[in-house]
Amino acid sequence: MTATRWLAEYAWLPEHAEPIADVLIEAEDGRFTAVTPLTRGGAPTAGVEVLTDAVRLPGLTLPGLANAHSHAFHRALRGRTQGGRGDFWTWRDQMYALTVRLDPDSYLALARATFAEMALAGITGVGEFHYLHHGPGGTPYDDPNAMSAALVEAAAQAGIRITLLDTCYLTASVDGRPLTGLQLRFGDGDAVRWGERAAAFTPAGGHAKVGAAVHSVRAVPAEQLDTVARWARERDAPLHVHLSEQPAENDACRAVHGSTPTRLLADREVLGPATTAVHATHPTSADLGLLAESRTGVCLCPTTERDLADGIGPARRMADVGIPLSLGSDSHAVIDLFEEARAVELDERLRTRRRGHFVAADLVTAATAAGHAALGWTDAGRIAVGARADLVTVRLDSVRTAGVPAVGAFFAATAADVTTVVVDGRTIVADGRHRSVDVPTELGRAIAEVIS
Predict the structure, then answer these.
(1) Which residue has the higher pLDDT, 45 or 78?
(2) 258-to-175, 225, 243, 253 alpha-carbon distances in Å
(3) What is the pLDDT of residues 43-60, one digit of tens each?
């Protein structure tokens, strides 16, 4: 791979509370090799040659964004589940019904288009929380990991990195009711067989990692939680878990186990620095203490949490006790990490009726370095020498961002303002268009195939 140089009008560099003007960024073999601010106090730095070979990046350039929680097939539900009454559980019935039409080929097409939409939004890495393992009725495909392979290939074709979070999903409720009907596709029988299947999958290409996930305390019996956690630890792999998304989950766990879901996970050694709890919308104060003490991260998904009427999680309290925060688009009601990031602040304002809980730099970290770290890519999410050469440039002259200072872009820009996306040194999006995928056309075709 040849060396590349970019000249960013503004760039957000590590350890800076605000963007820096006029930054020369250089990369070779997919890694940043030099990051040089060219002005000091408005004056050019001495000795810098004329930059005729540098690609100009007008606007604000950020590290690549990380979508730490995704269910790719949910993209087909956008605009179909938002109307009418109901709650999380009625939405879940509609979501399960969609799985009937998915097979490895249709899933590849839908995931490719969905991941390409993420690329257009500035996302350079995704955590795919994957539990749609088998065929209808739970019958394995000839390749038991055919659906996993489809997701990994979809990410490759879309040009982004993926952490496939292979999800253990064994029961229908906290009290251990067996899977039935549409849920049969998700199960492997027990955690040992889940681990054997997951271990048999080796993704092709350097763009992919395999991690593990406990779907929830509803879906994995307490006595098998440690099997999943041990599988992840032995492989030094990230481990994710849906946690306390609904009060009903907390109530059921107390009724069966006499503890909150967080306490149960702590007792079964699921929590830890490689673990990310997704949602954590309804934790107790003691739960927050357990998450902080174990250095477990939390992935917030504000656009999904509001769409499903889940509630508003205590983001500021989490940050105050040292819990790392990352972001995900989850059900893909929208795919826009700028919206997810500012919602962390804006939802806190709604909950507390006060403003000013997070500064822009906090939100940038959640959307970039913290998210990549939660997915096992600790060398991504920073514009710094040695890091993966991921860049996202946002216009500062659109109808949303015109007149907005660079530091305020996270509170004004949307995914539609992304012009350039670079992943591991390769330009995936240029002038706001994906270089290899006609995203609207492919989304329309893939969704039409799976929506009856």
Answers:
(1) 78
(2) 12, 16, 16, 7
(3) 555 444 557 789 999 999
Closest CA to 63 of 130, 113, 19, 13: 13
As given in the structure block, the two tokens for residue 287 are: 């739960």
pLDDT at 94: 79
Residue with tokens 């994957």, as numbered in its chain: 130
Q: Which amino acid is at 289?
A: G
Q: Which contacts qualify for 248-254: CB closer than 8 Å, 24 or more apart?
A: 248/89, 249/174, 249/216, 249/217, 249/218, 249/282, 250/282, 252/173, 252/174, 252/175, 252/218, 253/174, 253/217
330 tagged catalytic? yes
pLDDT in tens, 249-298: 999 999 999 999 999 999 999 999 999 999 999 999 999 999 999 999 99
For residue range 235-259, list pLDDT tens digits in order: 999 999 999 999 999 999 999 999 9
Token digits for 197?
């299947």
Q: State pLDDT tens for residues 296-342.
A: 999 999 999 998 889 999 999 999 999 999 999 999 999 999 999 99
Question: In whole angstroms, what is the distance from residue 362 CA to residue 319 CA?
Answer: 10
Inform me whether the pLDDT recorded for 1 exceeds 60.
Answer: no
The active-site residue out of 69, 74, 130, 279 is 279
Contact status, residue 114 vs residue 443, Cβ threshold 8 Å: yes
Residue 279 annotated among the catalytic residues of the structure: yes
Question: Which member of 307, 330, 362, 390 is catalytic?
Answer: 330
pLDDT at 231 over 50: yes
